[in-house]
Amino acid sequence: MKKIFSTIAILLLAITLAACNGDDNGGDLGDENPERLVVWADNTYWGGENGKLVSAMLDEYEAETGIEVIYEAQPDLDNKLRGASLGGESPDLIIWDRWQTTMYINDGLLVNLDQFIEADGINTNEYQQEALNEMIKDGSVYGFPLDIDAWGYWVNKTLLAEAGINELPSTWDELRTAAIALTKYDDSGNMTRAGINLDSPGAFFSYIQTAGGSVFTDNDELNFNSAAGASVLTYWYDMIHVDKVFDKAFGSSQGGADDPFVTQRFAIQSNSLLNGSQFYKTYIGDKFEYEFIPYPQGPSTEFATTENPAGTNHGGLMGGFGLAVPKTATYKKAAWNLIKWWITDTDNQVKWSEISGLIPAKLSIIEDPRMKEIPNVRNVIDSLPYIKARPKVNGYTSIETSVFMSKIGSLLFEGGYVRGNDTTAKRVQACLNDMEQTAQSILDFAKL
Amino acid sequence: MTNPALSNNKQSIGQRIKDWFKWLFTTRRGQKNLWGIIFIIPAMLIFIIFTVVPISMSFGLSLTNMRGLTLTNMKFVGLKNFEFIFKVDPLFWKAMRNIGLYTLITVPLTLTGSLLLALVIKKPILGTKFFRGLFYLPGITSGVATAMVWLYLLNGNGIINNGIRWFNDIFNTSMPLILMNDSRTAIWGLIFMTIWGGLGGNMVLFLAGMNAIPTNIYEAAEIDGANRRQQFFKITMPLLKPSLIFALTLSLIGSPQMFEPILIMDANTTTPVYEIYKNALKGGLGTGLATAQSVILFFFIMIVTLVMQRVNKEFKI
Amino acid sequence: MQADKIVMSKPTKLTFQEKFQSKKYRRNLVENIFLWIIRIFLGAVFAFPLYWAIVTSFKPLEEIISPTINLGINNPTLEHYKYVLTWRDYNTGQIVIFNALNNTLFITIITGILNIMITSVAGYAFAKLKFKGSKVIFRILLLSMMIPGVITMMPTFIVISNLKLWGNFAGVILPGISSVFNIFFMRQFFITLPDELGESAEIDGASEFRIFFQVYLPQVKPALAAIAIFNFQGGWNNFLMPYVVLPTSKLVLPTFIRSFPAENFGQTMAASMLSTLPILVLFIIFQKYFMQSVTLTGIEK
Question: Is C161's pLDDT higher than 50?
Fold first, then answer.
């Protein structure tokens, strides 16, 4: 017995010691001109067709520098990154969903790029600050934004015109009217067309801004259990249960050519610019006219006050990808060169923008009048000053999934918060209270 | 010969080690210490590294705030993880409820179904081998292939949901559709998929058990006038008890740990092990919390198993 | 002569009509028909998902996504199979499915061989070799079988990563080369063999290893076959370990199936069919052994 325990103890010690190589910046920077660089991205967005766009861009880099770039789309990139972070196989550069950056900086997985930025004289003010900020911690830069994405609605303009509405909705009231006009039922009471897809409880973050509120205060304290929050939930609740513009079961599909927006089962679809651009271009083509609009301005007249008149608040969620260098990369300097080439060179940024249809992060390009001529993109650029990136507070990612999406979903679609609450207002308040309590506990737990 | 290394004599370390080796290599008549240990060393090494160490890690790490897979950079936080799970964790208990429902339905249905299947397939008439293979087939297909097939079957326009719609129309009911991205019904999709895949394996187990019962018992019973039903309940069932208990134990340990299909199908539901996976590897609330969750699940399963064994002993079912 | 009349007549085969007279025969016949009907019905239910998968893999994309249910195929096509079999990796130019197949074969075979070697040796030691601690250690192993796997899942990944094996095939192979269950299984078999065989070989001067290898091991061939099949099946279908531990460049068949876009189920089904084919063939040939392994384990417990 003793022998077994002592063996275990020795092994545990050995493993712990082997792991204790907490280097601060991952050691040497590697050869500046390696034979090959490895770039990873997440399969969900950058696999398949979108992956070809990245490959096209990287091929240009190969042509210019002669460095072979191996691009691999990984399913579950974050999972793989954690495994790779201990010194097994590791990529040199990652195309990274920016909102997770803080968590990974905290976990010590990304390289601090300050030294490279200073050495090459890059001015970080030339970039969209909200986007860049997502990759900054304690004043140090850990990555550069690759593109700017925004969430909003894709509107079927053909159907909208058929319903007699000629202007794209821009306020809560207009959106509600449009949704009601666009919803169609058949004679037996079954839905044949949903006016709007309301199955996006994550949009709470954006909507509360358009109601005049916010999820966090400037001091990173919870702020969503407010009149603004209640107005958002009531707005959604009424649209679903009173106006009946959406039915969750109605929208299930197999994706691809069967997507509900493509097949016109949804007249207004909730999606981001990135997710929609290529996809809808491929599958809709010329079948009908459609356009991307940012989230409507609120609040609705029902909730308007003198301090907060209807339809006056902007808001939105900024998404997008960034380029970052994992600490275990073999060729850090070379990875930085690739970042420099891709992001800081204006011509390449424009080229990337043309290839991918995404908005670049360099301010000079964003403000270029030519950007305003691109449909959908121009709508996003106009709203750029108002849209916010996800909060960097520790634990927010968990709050978004286990509090907002789960509990709001329960309220809207699963009959949650009904017991003991006979009016919508009571149910909404119960949901908000529940969310606040859970979110606060998560925040307390995640404080390191 | 007692192990001198365990004695309390104040010997020098060197002497102690020498004595230990001597004890190791000394053979009594028929004892083969050295060879025994050599033969089991590879197996034991793997066992220690990949079973013992992980188990102790689980318990140890559950008291820290470790994140990801890195063993550096963590602090001891005592019972904070457990406090969070019991007081707050919104998704873990939802997951537990899901897996409770799943286990409660899958286990009895699978076991009774397999028993019935074994009865059906028992008689060696023409075609038995073919059907037996057919029933066993779902068990050998890869989990990924099975999950993807069922994902397709359970699609909104898929055949199963169309059947449900048809059923609702004809009988004027309003059964919900089973969709993998509907958080309320996804678990049912998993339940059906698991039952489908699990019947074959258990069937073979019960078949073996049934075939091990000597036929003369049945002949004697028949002479005594027992009909088929009595034969089944008074002879077959009691003699199958060991197999039943074995299958039940395996199911009760295995079912609460279900999670791979959710990963494969990207289903909109969660189970405890999926929560653990999310927290540890997908940057959720940390590996410390994840290991704490796995410790809690571990105790749940152990309690259920022990209760079952105690009930079995007490009531001699 | 009179003797002729004493010869007993050979029993003649009864005609069906004559058999039919017997109530017992009639009842048996009805029962058989009944069983056949049930088996066909159940067989259809069981096989339906597989049938559906096969059918889908041959359907063109429009039919797959069309809302009308069609149990047959209007325009059978090989386009999905062609795509799956010719899809080349962008970086290396290799055909992806062959890469996945190679990796899967490599991992499965190496794991299987090492596992048989290690567990049969250990099982033999626990069964036939009396050594200090044998009982205690074996009891610990037995207890560990009752422990739910969840408690080792995450830390296994931690161990693999910290041993710098992430991304390496060894990270997938090593955890699988010694399973307590197989050790237990082999031990059960070895115990049934008589000690005298070993003792007589020992008197003849054979070393322990020769005794094991040449005397006892050949006696347990069916057990080895059962274990080999179990291991093969497990290794072939193993999804989680390669998914977490290996990057995309080191694909295995289960992760390969999942790497197709969700929109085109035809491709996923074609990939599933192709991946299942080898093990299906093995199953048909060695059906007896597959089920025997389950049988034997049940009896032992």
Answer: yes
